[in-house]
Amino acid sequence: MTGRLRIACVGGGPAGLYFAISAKLRQPGHEITVVERNPAGVTHGWGVGYWDDVLDSLYRNDPVSAREIQRSTGVWDGVEVHVGGDQKAYLGGYGLSMGRQRLLDILAERAIDVGIDVRFQQEITDLSELADADLIVASDGMNSRTRQHFANNFQTDITLGRNKYLWLGAYQAFDAFTYAFERTPAGWIWLHAYYLDADRSTCIVECPPETWEGLGFSTLNADQSMQLLEQIFERHLHGQPLINQIRSGNKLPWLNFRVIRNSSWFYNNVVLIGDAAHTTHFSIGSGTKLAVGDAVALATKLAEHDDLHSALKAYEEQRLPEVNAIQRNAVTSMRWLENVEDCIDQDGVQFAYALSKRFRTRQPLWRYHLHLATQISALRRLRRHVTSARRWHHARLRERSAGILEQLPPHGVLRAPMES
Q: Would you say 263 and 154 are in contact if contact means Cβ atoms under 8 Å apart?
């Protein structure tokens, strides 16, 4: 788009900030403002997770911010699945994660550096406040007021998950991504735990509504709930406390996951990105990937097309089918966990394999044999060494392609946080 646009991003989360950066880098003449209701340095949430493909995209799009993100990124190595006190199984693979606040700080600083007007502690209550904007980007999350204002035009559909879930932190550092299933008198409850920073982890607690009600969480205050959860997961926390962001005495913010879909992603000059456009269940960890993908795609289409409507249409046509495919997997994963009691009584190794293929039911036979081999400690160490070497090689190629030739550490040394 050759003309200069006045762009207002409503919401300063990862999607809004990264779109603003991406659009400004492609077309410096755009006048871009990001409006965030929270103060600088304040956010709700814990860690964000992603994989190498996201870091690859960040480096291709903006190596400056990508480098800073990598410096703060941690690696979780493998997956551990604990069922009760007796059974533990291992899965391969690795993932990347970092604190949400650190990510936002990096993106906000980069946005300001490239000439974007980032305004904290400012809330848009009426879109008439943005009447002079040529484009309004709704990047205000799953509870987007902007989307709700035009819900009929976007044809928004919201489906509630059955299970209860809760975002917490812990002072226990989990080196591997950890699933911890514990049986209580009221039923099963479990943790999804992964790296947050050097001394802390993100912990998502999930359980069926019957377990939630039976354990009394509907009536317990925050302190009582935290004490009960620390007792249930004591063996995994090793005496370290859980962390919550709620003031003492209030009830913890248990939620039912909301699957948000929109048949259309733009209306007039308003366009949706990130969680305002779509949500994916936390069990597949694709929120950051989709936010970055939306941001880059929208910025690219604005640069490629001569008029706003064509650019927004092209953005929707590219992203909608891509996101739909990921959302289908996410819903399958969510439903599998809602029915986890149907298969959790089997042998721990078999249960872990079922967990690993919950949204990819067709797996080649060799994957099952690799899973069995991974339970042998010597072969597990070998698999981790091979995975680490591949990760190191991939990182080296990525940085070389971005023109960054600093020496990376040997592949056996790369740990959380990632060294540069």
A: yes
CB-based contact 49:134 (threshold 8 Å) = no
Residue 89: inside a domain, yes or no? no
Domain tally, the chain: 1
Task: Tell me which residue has tokens 């880059």.
Answer: 296
Spatial distance between the Cα atoms of 90 and 93, rounded to a whole number of angstroms? 10
**Is residue 332 assigned to a domain?**
yes
CB 173 within 8 A of CB 199: yes
pTM over 0.90: yes
pLDDT over 80 at 329, yes or no: yes
Centroid of chain to Cα 406: 29
Residue 381 CB neighbours (<10 A): 10
Cite the DSSP H helix spans in 266-307. 287-304
CA-nearest of 77, 74, 31 to 388 is 77
User: Any idea which residue has 């010597």 for tokens?
Assistant: 378
Q: CA-CA distance, 79 to 97, in Å (whole number)?
A: 14
Per-residue pLDDT of 173-200, as tens digits, reads: 898 999 999 999 999 999 999 999 888 9
Q: What is the Cα–Cα distance from 193 to 54, expressed in whole angstroms?
A: 20
Determine, yes or no, domain membership for 285.
Answer: yes
User: Is 415 inside any structural domain?
Assistant: no
Q: What is the domain-level CATH number for residue 296?
A: 3.50.50.60
Structure token pair of residue 258: 């909301």
Do 58 and 398 form a contact (C-beta atoms < 8 A)?
A: no
How far apart are the C-alpha atoms of 22 and 225, rounded to whole Å?
42
pLDDT tens column, 339-366: 999 999 999 999 999 999 998 777 899 9
Tokens at 196, concatenated: 């947050």
